[in-house]
C-alpha cells in the first residue's frame, strides 16, 4: 500500500481546525501504559485544565475516549432512564441528534423547535420547563450546523429552581467563547477536541455537576452503555484508578498540549481573538456581497454560516477552494444543504491570515 | 502547566505495546477533514488492509472510533435486541465483560464457564449451542487476562449449521497469530490497535459477515447506541459517505501506517516471529524457575501469564521493573490479582532484544 502522503490543507470548515505543530509533536511522543504513574499525572493535570476551561469546580470533569458524539451519548445515557422526561431545543442537526439519542434511551421527549438559523426562544423554553418539570432540559449552546449561539443564563436559573438538570452541547463553543458551567447552572456538558481546542478529533471533554452525579449514582437501572458508564469512568479517572478501558494515550498527550497552549494565551484573550477575527471576516464577506444566514445578535464567532448568493454553485465553489487553494470550508447540512456555506474560525484557524486567505480566494472565485 | 516530558518505557505489558517511529511520525501528519477526498482514500485503503488482516471478504470491515471496548460494545449492541438468547464463554475478564454488556442489552444470557487460565471446553460449548439454539455465541479468542488461546474452528462449523452468529474478541490475537474470520465461520469480531498492531490505543477494528449485517438491518428495534449504530457507520464508511461523526483523523493515519508495516513483514512471518520469541521467553523463564499459569497447548504467544513464585512480592517486582528498567509488564486481574504476572510480546515489543531485557531484569531482581 502506498505511503501516507497528505497534501496539507488550511482547515476553515466546521472542524477539524488547524492543529499547532506543538500538538502534532505531542502526538508523536512515545507511548506509555494507561496505568503508568506518568500517565495518571497527565490525566490529573488534564482534568485541572479542563475544569478551568469549562469554568467549573466539578470533580467529574474528564475526556471521554471517543469523538464529540460519544461525549454526547455519554451525557444522555447516563442522565436518562426509560420513561424519564426530557425537554430538547431543536434548531439544527445537533438538537435533532439529541432527540435521536434520547429516543434510544426510551425517554419521554418534548421539544421546543425553532427555524434553523434562529435561537430557541428563551421564554418559550422556560415556560415549557415550568409546565413539564422535566428531569433534563437539553440545548445546543453553539449549533455548528447553523452558526447560532444560544443564550443559557436565564434558562439555567429556572432549571436550578425547578430541579431540572440542564445539559448543553458546547462542542463548538468551548475554548472560543465563554462557557460558564457553574455560573450558568449547567449540570452536564460535552465538547469535542477538534474545534476551538485545535486538537485532533478523538476525545470528548465532559463535565458533570455533583447534582448530576448524584442522579446518576441513584439510578434504578444500569447505564445502557458499559463503555460510557460514568460510575465506572469515575473509578478510573478518580483516585481509585481501576482499569476500565485502555485510554487513548497519544490523544491524551495531544489534548494536554492543546490545553497548555490555551492557558498560555488565556481564555479572555482567546475569546477576544475569536470575536475580532469573526468581525473582520463578516466585514470582508459583506464587502464581497455575502450575507450571514444566522440570527443577528446570536452569531457564533467561530462558525460563520453564509448564504450562498444566487447564481453560485456552492459545491463547485467548495471544490475550487479545496483544489486550487487547499482550503476546506463546510457545506450546509439538512435543510440548509446547498443554501449555506460554513466558514470556521476555530482555535489555530482563527487568525487574520486565515481571514485574508478565504476572502482573497472567494474574491477570485466568485 | 509543565511541559509534556515523558520518560520512555519499554512496553511488555498487556498493551499498549511499543509503537514504531514510523507510526509516531504518521500521527504527527497535519490534519485534514473527515470528508476530504484524501481521507476517504485512507479509509478505503485501511478497510482493504483490515480485511486482509482479518482474513475476510466482509464488506463491513472498519475501525470504530473508540478503544477496543467500544468495538466490543458495538458488536453486542448491534447484534442483540432485548430478549435475544446469547451463549457466552467465560474464563477471564473479557468473557465477564461480555456478560456485563449483554445484560445492558437485556439479552437472555447463558454461559459456559471455565477456570481462569483454561480454555472453554469445545464440546461443552457446542452441546450448549445445539441445546439452546442461541442467536449469538460469543467467545474470547485471546483472553488477555489469562494468556489463553481459545480454539474456534469446530465451534464455527456448528454455529454455521445452527444459524447462530459467532462473535469473537480478538483484541489481543489479531496481527500476532492467525485470525481466520471467513475460514472459521466467524460472523462478528472486534479488536484493538494497541496490541499486536503496535498502533496507539484509540481505534477498534471490527468486521461483520453479510449474515450478521442482514440480522442487524432486520432489527425490529433501533440499536441502543447512536454512536455505534452500524447501519449509520455503514453509510459513512460505505460509498454514500454520509457524515455521522468526525473520525479521529490522526489515529486513522497511525492505523494506516501500522497496517502497512504489518503487510511489509507479511502475516505468516509475523505470526512465526511471535511464536519464536514466545518460545525463547518461555525457555528463559523456565531457566529462572518461573512457570506459566495458562493451559499447556493453548497458550497465547503474545501474552504470557506467569505464576508469581512463592516469596516474591509481585507488586514490588513490577515497580522495580518500571523504576529501575523503565520496563512495563502487567499485573494479574480479578481472581489472578497478585498471583500472576503478564508479560506481553506484541508487535514491535516482540523481539529477541525484548526477551533478553526482561529475562536479564528478572534475573537481577529476583
| CATH architecture name of the largest domain in chain A | 3-Layer(aba) Sandwich
Strand count, sense and barrel status of the largest sheet of chain A are: 7 strands, mixed
CATH topology of the largest domain in chain A: Aspartate Aminotransferase, domain 2
* Order of SSEs of chain A: EHHEHEHEHEEEHEHEEHHHHEHEEEH
- Compute the CA-based radius of gyration of chain A: 20 Å
The portion of residues assigned to helices of chain A is: 40-55%
Determine the N-to-C terminus distance of chain A.
39 Å
CATH class wording of the largest domain in chain A: Alpha Beta
Task: State the low-pLDDT regions of chain A, or none.
Answer: none
Give the DSSP E fraction of chain A (strand runs of 2 or more residues): 15-25%
CATH homologous group name of the largest domain in chain A:
Type I PLP-dependent aspartate aminotransferase-like (Major domain)
Query: How many DSSP helices of chain A?
Result: 13
Structural class determined from secondary elements of chain A: alpha/beta
Query: What is the subunit arrangement here?
Result: homodimer
**Adjacency order of strands in the biggest sheet of chain A:** 2-10-9-8-5-3-4
> What global shape of chain A is seen?
globular
Give the overall pLDDT of chain A as a whole number: 97
Count of domain modules of chain A: 2
Biggest interface, CB < 8 A: A-B, 77 and 77 residues
Q: How many strand elements of chain A?
A: 14
Amino acid at each position: 500500500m502506498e505511503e501516507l502522503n497528505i497534501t496539507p490543507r488550511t482547515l476553515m470548515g466546521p472542524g477539524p481546525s488547524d492543529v499547532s505543530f506543538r500538538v502534532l509533536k505531542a502526538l508523536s511522543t512515545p507511548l506509555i501504559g494507561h496505568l503508568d504513574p506518568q500517565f495518571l499525572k497527565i490525566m490529573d493535570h488534564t482534568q485541572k485544565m479542563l475544569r478551568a476551561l469549562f469554568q467549573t469546580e466539578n470533580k467529574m470533569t474528564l475526556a471521554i475516549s471517543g469523538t464529540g458524539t460519544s461525549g454526547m451519548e455519554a451525557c444522555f445515557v447516563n442522565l436518562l432512564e426509560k420513561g424519564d422526561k426530557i425537554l430538547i431545543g431543536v434548531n439544527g442537526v445537533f438538537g435533532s441528534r439529541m432527540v435521536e439519542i434520547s429516543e434510544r434511551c426510551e425517554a419521554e421527549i418534548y421539544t421546543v423547535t425553532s427555524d434553523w438559523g434562529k435561537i430557541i426562544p428563551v421564554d418559550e423554553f422556560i415556560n415549557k420547563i415550568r409546565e413539564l418539570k422535566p428531569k433534563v432540559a437539553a440545548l445546543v449552546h453553539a449549533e455548528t450546523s447553523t452558526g447560532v449561539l444560544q443564550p443559557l443564563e436565564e434558562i439555567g436559573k429556572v432549571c436550578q429552581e425547578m430541579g431540572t438538570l440542564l445539559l448543553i452541547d458546547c462542542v463548538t463553543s468551548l475554548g472560543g467563547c465563554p462557557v460558564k458551567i457553574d455560573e450558568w447552572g449547567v449540570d452536564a456538558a460535552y465538547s469535542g477536541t477538534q474545534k476551538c481546542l485545535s486538537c485532533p478529533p478523538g476525545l470528548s471533554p465532559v463535565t458533570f455537576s455533583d447534582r448530576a452525579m448524584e442522579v446518576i449514582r441513584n439510578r434504578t437501572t444500569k447505564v445502557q452503555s458499559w463503555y460510557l458508564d460514568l460510575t465506572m469512568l469515575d473509578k478510573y479517572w478518580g483516585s481509585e484508578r481501576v482499569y476500565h478501558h485502555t485510554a487513548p494515550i497519544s490523544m491524551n498527550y495531544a489534548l494536554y498540549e492543546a490545553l497548555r497552549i490555551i492557558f498560555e494565551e488565556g481564555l479572555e484573550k482567546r475569546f477576544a481573538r475569536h470575536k475580532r477575527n469573526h468581525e473582520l471576516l463578516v466585514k470582508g464577506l459583506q464587502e464581497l456581497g455575502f450575507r450571514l444566514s444566522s440570527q443577528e445578535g446570536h452569531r457564533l464567532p467561530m462558525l460563520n454560516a453564509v448564504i450562498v448568493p444566487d447564481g453560485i454553485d456552492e459545491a463547485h465553489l467548495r471544490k475550487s477552494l479545496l483544489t486550487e487553494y487547499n482550503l476546506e470550508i463546510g457545506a450546509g447540512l439538512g435543510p440548509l444543504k446547498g443554501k449555506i456555506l460554513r466558514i470556521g474560525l476555530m482555535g489555530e484557524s482563527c487568525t487574520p491570515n486565515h481571514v485574508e486567505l478565504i476572502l482573497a480566494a472567494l474574491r477570485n472565485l466568485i
